[in-house]
Amino acid sequence: MSDCIFCRIAAGEIPADTVYEDEQVMAFRDIQPKAPVHLLMIPKQHIASLMELNREHDALMAHMLALLPSLARAEGLEQGFRTIINTGKEGGQEVFHLHIHLLGGSPLPGF
Ligand code: 5GP
Ligand code: ZN
Prior knowledge:
Blueprint: H1 5-10, E1 18-21, E2 25-29, E3 37-43, H2 58-74, E4 82-84, E5 100-104
């Protein structure tokens, strides 16, 4: 989707501070970090939100989740971290391309 900012990052059309990439996914630093470490993990294929998931995405989503511990370790987050997926307007989603926030590096406030 050419008008989707994360599709454009995945295609290399917009630069990003990428920390991990493979055929299916990318992880890069959030442009407005809300914690000392703030990564975004995206699937390279356009999925608008968690609401669009179906069973065909099982392997992809498992792959994304399974990558998080190694990403967290690489960022020094052995003491813990938070993952967030905002979904839809009322969920606070601003970019409508599925992404997992990975936050840490200092104690995070409660909800
Ligand atoms: P959402 O509110 O949709 O869950 O989160 C979107 C996130 O994407 C925000 O934390 C925002 O700072 C980040 N973001 C928006 N545009 C860009 C961009 O062009 N590059 C990067 N690296 N992050 C972005
Ligand atoms: Zn997209």
